[in-house]
Amino acid sequence: MTQHQKLYIVAGPAGCGKSTVATQLATRLGAPFIEGDELHSKENVAKMDANVPLTDDDRDPWLRTFVPRALEEMDKAGTAVAVATCSALKAKYRDIIRDSAPEELDLQFVFLTLDMEALMARVRARKNHYMKDTMVASQLEICEIPATEPDAVVVNVTNKDAQTVEGLVREALGV
Predict the structure, then answer these.
(1) Which residues contact 60 (CB under 8 A, 6 or more apart)?
(2) What's the rounded Cα separation, in Å, for the pair 169 and 87?
(3) CA-to-CA distance for 172 and 23, rounded, in angstroms?
(4) 23-36: pLDDT as tens digits
(5) CA distance 29 to 162
(6) Comparing C-alpha atoms, which of 57, 69, 55, 141 is closest to residue 100?
(7) Residues 91, 95, 96: CA angle, nearest 5 degrees
(8) Number of domains, the chain
(9) E-assigned strand segments in 58-140
(10) Separation in Å, CA 110 to CA 11, 98, 155
(11) 132 and 31 Cβ atoms separated by less than 8 Å
């Protein structure tokens, strides 16, 4: 790395709006966008498609792909920033991503929250996606919303001041 770089990781359970918010954030920042779902192994996708929750061991190699992919995309795009989506549900998952990052890379986790009923409705409305609504409960069971992580901001998707995608992006950026 020759310059200071930043990776935003838009996180949260299935259906919270990660891809929507991350796409808009990337557009606003002129940054490459990395869809975390596309980084899963075929085995992981098959498990989720069969309604089998991933284990920590399943997730570990996937979590370690984010930083190298982001650095590669920044290099290709000639930018110092990238945006990725990743559920990053547990603190230890976020730690794996942090541990895979060079010291010079700033990480910013943007953790989106939404109630289970809304998550279920959003996931049910998706067409041709491997993540089924039955998996939402298993995600919420293991979910650890960041409370004391200095590189994480929690954004409540139902917050009346941030109900638009642009409002969510502003909140994520702290503006």
Answers:
(1) 96
(2) 17
(3) 13
(4) 999 999 999 999 99
(5) 18
(6) 69
(7) 120
(8) 1
(9) 81-85, 105-113
(10) 6, 14, 7
(11) no
Instruction: Kindly list the distances between the CA atom of residue 131 and the CA atoms of 97, 99, 137, in Å, as whole numbers in the listed order.
Output: 22, 27, 12
| Residue owning tokens 């808009």 | 24
Look at 15-24, 25-34, 153-162 and tell me which has the smallest mean pLDDT: 153-162
Task: Note down the domain range covering 103.
Answer: 5-173
The whole-angstrom separation of Cα 158 and Cα 109 is 18
Read off the tokens for 141.
Answer: 């069971």
Q: What CATH number does residue 126 fall under?
A: 3.40.50.300
| Count of beta carbons in the 10 Å neighbourhood of residue 121 | 13
Model pTM?
Answer: 0.85
Instruction: Output the six-digit token pair for 64.
Output: 């370690």
- 5 pairs with which residues across the strands? 105
Consecutive H or E run containing 120: helix 116-125
**Dist CA 99 CA 24 (whole Å):** 27
